[in-house]
């Protein structure tokens, strides 16, 4: 019996050891399951975030690699990362997160960020090359917003129109060759064919130029005066290049192609802006009649000018002198032509004239006054004016702290307005809920802020000449900028409704479409 206790003791020790082993095993299994679960979670997170990593678009430099896998958004911060989310942006379904790294060493009570840490992280996969090519082609051949921007019959009409021009273009080669033979250019088949091909290439280059410029299509609806005048200038440029072929006949083909490109671009602007201009003149449903009579007047004047030139050419005048005089008359007439058009819509130029007059005098200019003050030399494709609508977040803000400082002032608005001192421009950014009236209000607010910024600049440079040019380099302090924004917010809240009612009384039509805002939107 003595061994029994020993055996029991051994069994007890063995059981204790077994229990401890089982407990340890269970703990290890639980830890293993937790480790596997955590590994799977991290792997899934990294897999879902991989496109954002590969498409990170730094504003200054590539973000540190050790932080990128941890940029997981959660309650305005990134879990496990020192980066903080500033805002989100969307353009045509593509999104970006703007992040910055707070500066923990700063003693300031306000949130500050490390210099150079402001970045844009793309949240979308790269666009396939084929999709990018199709998007590029669509920008040339279909109206913006297609198919929602046109009626269903547009597609069959354009299909048959394209086929008509296809057959017409093919026939043009043979008709041109026949005409050249008829006037005795050459009876030799190969020679006449070469001349005809050169002539067709010249016309083809003009058509290519016309097609490329057609991408400006939407601008014909709101900046038609500027484009119409620019088109007339290009027509004269093309005429000058054509005359230059007499001095260098061996360069006929390249010069003729360049001239035809310029003249065809001018023709696009003329035909595209013709209907809106005639529509402004028609009081009733008589646009067709007004257009027909207007074209008839133009053709009569063209025939009279042709007859006069035939009479003058018989006296063998100086080609350069004659061209200079006729060009001056053409450009002057074109300028007065577009200045005489009175449009009811407020594009950016006329909107700026109306708001500026309202802020200075308390009254909105009449239709005639506003159109006369519009600058037709401000060509849309050259550069943006002092106010930019709907631009990217990274273009409007240099530092995230500026956005965080002014964002509370626009909490109840569907937009944010700021001034970028490095570019000397006022920017209006739109939130994703912004409607037509919100865009109009943002444009008005941007004009008001620009007005206050100019007043602030003038007060600091009382005795300086050329203030208008130097304003582009104006860099206000953060305190001055915030004060101007607060003042502009107060002004807009009390005066925007008054401006709208007075503009309506004068006959102005306000629509955000004529302001041509950008497509970038801030999202939550």
TrEMBL record:
Residues 10-26 have a biased composition (Low complexity). Residues 133-361 form the Protein root UVB sensitive/RUS domain. InterPro entries: RUS6_N (IPR057404), RUS_fam (IPR006968), UVB_sens_C (IPR055412), UVB_sens_RUS_dom (IPR054549). Residues 363-517 form the Root UVB sensitive protein C-terminal domain. It comes from the Eukaryota. Residues 27-127 form the Protein root UVB sensitive 6 N-terminal domain. Residues 1-26 are annotated as: Disordered. Belongs to the RUS1 family. This is Protein root UVB sensitive 6. It comes from Malus domestica.
